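PROTEIN–LIGAND DATA SHEET

This sheet pairs a single protein chain with one bound small molecule, zinc ion, given as SMILES. Inputs appear in the order they were entered. The predicted three-dimensional arrangement of chain and ligand is reported afterwards as a token string under its own label.
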Amino acid sequence: MSWFIRKEKGIITPTEMKREAPDGLWYQCSNCKKISATREHKLNAYTCIHCNYHEKIGSEAYFELLFDDNEFVELDVELTSGDPLKFVDTKAYPDRVKATMSKTGLRDAVRTGHGKMNGSPLVIAAMDFNFIGGSMGSVVGEKIARAISYSLQHKTPFLMISKSGGARMMEAGFSLMQMAKTSARLAQLLEAKIPYVSLLTDPTTGGVTASYAMLGDFNISEPGALIGFAGPRVIRETIGKDLPKDFQSAEFVLEHGFLDFIVDRKDLKDKLSSLLTMLR
Ligand SMILES: [Zn+2]
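PREDICTION REPORTED AS:
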């Protein structure tokens, strides 16, 4: 039975020889469930190599995709939310903000910056959905308004990348005022004839759709994005009718005239560049 007896004890690979697979080496698509290498998925602009599903990404990834060599200057980094209403739900609002900050490393649901895209200056405001559902509170509104002012001062085109569940309920009326503030600032941009492109990504809803997201010289979207104002359940209950298939998908919204075109994220940078060249 000597063949059955282990002569040496345990696993003998020395620790320094062990090669561990790093976490997140593989990406599983949440749409088709197929697997691809994380690196390949990233190189493919976070779209699935099998079904072209556009994974939800945040400001960090968009900045890296669009700004040349990921070089940009971030604006108003320090701006953080107050608690004007002393709002408490399951948690006090300041505690929720603090917890979200440490979980996400973000300071609020939008980041703004200026840099170059294919050699031309551009200001980008990109929203982050993982910060309280990408909700628009006073910090989001203020940062967007200031980014638009920067565009105005430097005569630089403005790109807004929206991804939001709508207004931030913990700031109630203060959130709603951001719709008027950002819209007014965009009107100044229009008057100065500085191009504004609005990119709606999955999902863009509520007060964001009802203000700056739909005010672009061009309103464009990524494929398959959910775009709407109220949620489908609310609409169904209000009108008492079943809704059409793919209601509120980017494709449906395009067909009904609310979007100019849908752009694959892999072509985003080049398409934006040629669009802005045309508008200049
Ligand atoms: Zn897929």
